[in-house]
Known about the structure:
The chain has helices at residues 31-40, 62-80, 96-111, 130-143, and strands at 15-19, 25-30, 44-51, 54-60, 86-90, 116-121, 148-157, 160-167. By secondary structure, it is α/β, with parallel strands linked by helices. It has two domains: 8-78, Ubiquitin-like (UB roll) (Roll), CATH 3.10.20; 86-167, Translation initiation factor 3 (IF-3), C-terminal domain (Translation Initiation Factor IF3), CATH 3.30.110.10.
Amino acid sequence: MSKDKRLNEAITARQISVIGEEGEQHGTFSRDEALAFASERELDLVEVGERDGVVIAKMMDYGKHLFRQQKNQNKNRAASKKAEMKTLKITYKIGEHDLSVRANQAKKFAEHRHPLKVTLQLRWRENQFVGLAAEKMDAFIQMISEFYKLEGGVKKIGTAFHAMLNPKN
């Protein structure tokens, strides 16, 4: 049921077929009788449909219904949040301090359960230092191996090295 359903006095039909909270039929009443019938039970009348000119209304605690609906939406929203893929870029000539800064970033990503992609791109004349680049990539992966595990190894695609890592635990 959406929030724009008519309830209680907002229902304008002359004849209302009343359904109980568990789906049991209570019969067809005039509008005033149906409202009195629901208020005796301290419930709201919520219009759910129409058949042959007779409005069908269900008796329920509408506030409780909206609360449950909101709670389910929040639960679904929380469950649907995916871990976002994070990317860290390094170079073959990156300094030790800058590498430790990247490792600290990776640690924060791991705490939030984000998978990580590490990229090392070689440009122009840097392509002659493939060995140094591979060593730098391996050294960085060793630095973050405490909280990330390598999936599928380091791959060299074109002039770049790529490594996919998933958080441990």
